Amino acid sequence: MLSWSMVVIRGDKACDPRLPHCSQSQSGGKKVCDPYWLIPGKASDCSNPSAKKLISVDPDSVSISPNPIKLPGCFTISMKANIQQIDGPKNFFAKVEYTWGKVPQFNTLACQNASSNGCDGYGNNCYYCDICNSLQKLDQSGSKNTITSQFKKMSCPEKAGPYDFKREFCFNDFSDLDKDNNCRFDFLENGNNDKGYQEALESLRSSGFGTVTAKFTLASNATGEQIEKKKTKEAQLEATIERELESKRTENNWAVDDQQYITFRDWYIKKRKDTWHKQDYLPWLLYYNQVGCITVNFDVCDKQPVPATSGANALQCPSK
Q: Is the dihedral of CA 101, 102, 108, 109 positive or negative?
């Protein structure tokens, strides 16, 4: 029922044997990157007090196994949810956020590879604007992508009632995100918006552990009335931008013909509308239509966890 997206950062820029994150060992001509270990903590409800509680997830029912999780590797998520009602289009959208405890700016990182209007992508602060239809299209696409293919055969609820969710996810092959096989995700090497990721890696390398809080917020998609308001706002925005451009074209005597101007105008209007959609509309809709929110803490270790000094069956990252 619920899709859960997790991207785990691993590796460093070069597989230097003096560093804990990479190994120079080879397997079939490919580098073998050293694993990371996750110790899942307890889930908690982070719903807004004013949220429409159409979906209630019992935080105590959220279970992630095995403990610890070794990545690359597999883990299973299970939970119990109660759907109180489903009105209008049976669809939802969501936002996935991660916070790295020792790097405050980590929570402001931009989503990687998102569309121009802010939907989809991977990493931090990603909006998934049409979950149910996206899952249906994914099932029909024949995609062999090692990550997205694991979300096939998932579906959104069709009627009210109790639901059990249990699914295994395997991240044994990160080749789609590390095409040069240097044990470092490619989006960390593009020089854009990656400072927080870099600092999180530095923090992990220096201390051997860190804490990630994963937050999954679910909302019902826009109602018919909200869609009409969105169209009205976009039409107002388009008219305002067109007046601004016409005024500037006249005042500054732009040396462009009509066709060049129309091409630029259309591009600029789309850019402004996409920016509004990404920065204003999606956050508003997520807040206003929120139906549930769950957070889970994970301790991230660069070495296999060991029994904690206190607490039955508790684990901790080994000290340096």
A: negative
